Amino acid sequence: MTSMLNAYNVYEDRCPTRLLLDRLADKWALLILDRLQEGPVRFNRLRRDIKGISQKVLSQTLKKLERDGLVTRAVFATVPVTVEYSLTPLGQTLNETVSAFAHWAERNMDAVLAAQRAYDEAGAA
Amino acid sequence: MTSMLNAYNVYEDRCPTRLLLDRLADKWALLILDRLQEGPVRFNRLRRDIKGISQKVLSQTLKKLERDGLVTRAVFATVPVTVEYSLTPLGQTLNETVSAFAHWAERNMDAVLAAQRAYDEAGAA
DNA sequence: CGGTATCCAACAAGATACTG
DNA sequence: CAGTATCTTGTTGGATACCG
Questions:
Q1: Is A82 on the interface with B (CB under 8 A)?
Q2: In b/e form, how buried is each residue of B19-28, taking b as 16+ CB within 10 angstroms?
Q3: Is A81 exposed, middle or buried (0-12, 13-18, 19+ CB in 10 A)?
């Protein structure tokens, strides 16, 4: 047999995977997921490490990732309170993909910059 | 030796990789790159296959991907004109990552939906 | 420390109409 | 077929201020 009825398809407009893809295909979400691969991290540590992220966006993104079951939030009753974020097992299944994305950008930046220059020069001619 | 000076770092605010990550971490860009893995595709075919994408967004996204050196645009002087988009060798190096993303969403949608329900129920309590 | 609430400017994107 | 141009709305995200 070829396969069962395919329930989900990202190419379909109304498929719920579209919403999920939209949430994950986000610069901040990817950086958070990538950073959490090294283990549990506190809120303000994430804020410092992911340079340029605002408190609001960090908070919002973490909440969405938590709702999607990718991230766990653990509260410790210290004074002042300590909050640690970690990847769930589900979240960890994205590790390789997330890393690949970030590393790709770093490794191929020069090639992309060269392509941009070539494109812009051709357009200017 | 451990490594050379790391020129690029996505965790840095001003790093050019941030701009690149922002462009690639996009639902439409990912779907386009994924669709192009099967070979050259014409404009309106992409438009039909990636359901819900507007002509404007498709055009804009393709132009950015072309400028970044990930996609090539080939024009054939038929009547009316035919335009084919393909992945460049650079663009093809992203194939696995892009596929992983889309497939992840499709494979784990049920788990995510379950997590969302659990989260929402807990919040309602 | 770890957030929330509010305001606001900027940008993205959908709809629509038109063109070589 | 393969776009561009324009308009208008909706959403994002930065800045700021405040709270348990």
A1: no
A2: ebbebbbbbb
A3: exposed
pTM attached to this predicted model? 0.94
Which residues 27-46 on chain A approach chain B with CB closer than 8 angstroms? Answer: 27, 29-31, 34-35
As a whole-number percent, the residues of chain A with pLDDT over 90 amount to 88
Report if residue A79 sits inside a domain: yes
User: What is the Cβ-side half-sphere exposure of residue B63, based on CA atoms within 13 angstroms?
Assistant: 8
Length of chain B equals 125
CB B122 within 8 A of CB A66: no
Total tally of structural domains belonging to chain B: 1
Q: Output the six-digit token pair for B84.
A: 């084919």
Q: Which amino acid is at A7?
A: A
d(CA A30, CA A13): 23
Question: What is the full per-residue pLDDT of chain B (125 aa) written as tens digits?
Answer: 444 556 899 999 999 999 999 999 999 999 999 999 999 999 999 999 999 999 999 999 999 999 999 999 999 999 999 999 999 999 999 999 999 988 899 999 999 999 999 999 987 76
Q: How far is C-alpha B97 from the chain's CA centre?
A: 10
SS3 A46: helix
In a domain, A4, yes or no: no
Residue B31 lies in a domain: yes
3-class SS of residue A9:
coil
Closest chain A CA to residue B47? A11
